[in-house]
Amino acid sequence: MLFLDERLPETAEAFGQMRKSIFKDGYLDLKSKELIAVASSVLMRCQYCVDVHSRRAMNAGATKNEIAEAISVAMFIAAGSQVHWSNTSGGENVYDKIFGVGEEDEECCCRGSKD
Predict the structure, then answer these.
(1) Of 49, 42, 53, 112, nearest to 77 (Cα)?
(2) What residues form DSSP beta bridges with 92?
């Protein structure tokens, strides 16, 4: 955060306050929040964040196996997002377009009737 500290100190302060607010015990304990942060950091592909939040998770009582499992959940979400990836502009599944599945062959809950 050195960049923000030097150039945008008010923004850096606000970011720090947001972190303090989010990472205090609440409905979720700190360990759970840090495990979520590890998984989110994997999805965001931020190596620095994975390192920081993994250490913070361990400091909050998480085991290496719990961190590994949180990472595996992130991997599953990442893989699933690719399997179910769709073209949002037309609402058609990209893979159906690639493999030539026609509308008559396709069942889709979000497409209106053809009437």
Answers:
(1) 42
(2) 87
